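Internal tracking record. Fields below are filled automatically when a chain is submitted to the structure queue. Please do not edit lines marked as system-generated. If the sequence contains nonstandard residues, flag them in the REMARKS field before resubmitting.
Queue: standard
Priority: normal
Entity type: single polypeptide chain
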Amino acid sequence: MFSKQLAIYGFSFILFYLSAIFVQAEETSIYTERMALFKKTEALTQIPWYYLAAVDNYERNKKTASEDELLISITFDEEVWYGIGNYPQNPSSDIIHLFGGIGLDGDGDGLASQDQAEDLLYTLASFLQQEGPTRDDIKIGLWKLYERDLSVKSIMNTAKVFKNFNEINLANRDFPVDTNYNYSYRNTWGDRRGYGGLRIHEGTDIFADYGTPIKSTTYGVVEMKGWNRFGGWRIGIRDIYNIYHYYAHMSGFDDSIEIGTVVQPGDILGSVGSSGYGPPGTSGKFPPHLHYGMYKDDGYKEWSFDPYPYLRRWEQMAKD
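SYSTEM-GENERATED OUTPUT FOLLOWS
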């Protein structure tokens, strides 16, 4: 009986293992296919691939986790794509042009369809190309596309990360304090705070000794660095998933960290302190700890959400 149960257990483990390999291979395949499309569109339009990848990534991460993942997630309003009055939507590239639409044929079949990844990328690149090929030109093109500063900033930061690592499959994570040091934390998101007026606590406090190294949890770009009367010495990092990571109450910053620095999981940002709740230099009004907050952007607004479940997962990853 025992041997039969062991055989069943072994078979179940093999199925689980093979399933995990299949999922990993499938994810690798879709990233490889995307990169090939980005590079092909770059060759056709001279718009660097990492800007196209960043727009696609931004659009994908505006969606909810329950939605099916598409090869390319870029979309345009139908009137913008097909042209005003082009109803029913005629995907012929000549007809679209006649009606003032921006949809273009990227795969050479004579049609401009939002169901075709190459058409979407070629249309996006051509739209950006109208302003010119430089970084500033592309920022202007992105502004005309989104008319929102935060959207443009997020896309430009993601492009910078993709360019730096020459990769779009950047899924590693790390815990925000060095797990070789003593630390403790619990779920404190939503707790009451009184300094500066009654408000909720928008993060998780990780208590540790002064000088405990603070690390980047993600790939991203340092967007904010300096003093805040609530957070003391703090750093803000915008990642490639439309999420802003906020580190506060630090005792100081690593010399390598400046606004605009590209970081990856495990990079040292600074160290734990007790700064804040007053003018620059105020410290010691509470025990030393790191306040870690996460803010999601959906293309319309940005809001705080509970980082605790992610911290538990990243903590385990860091210890494995």
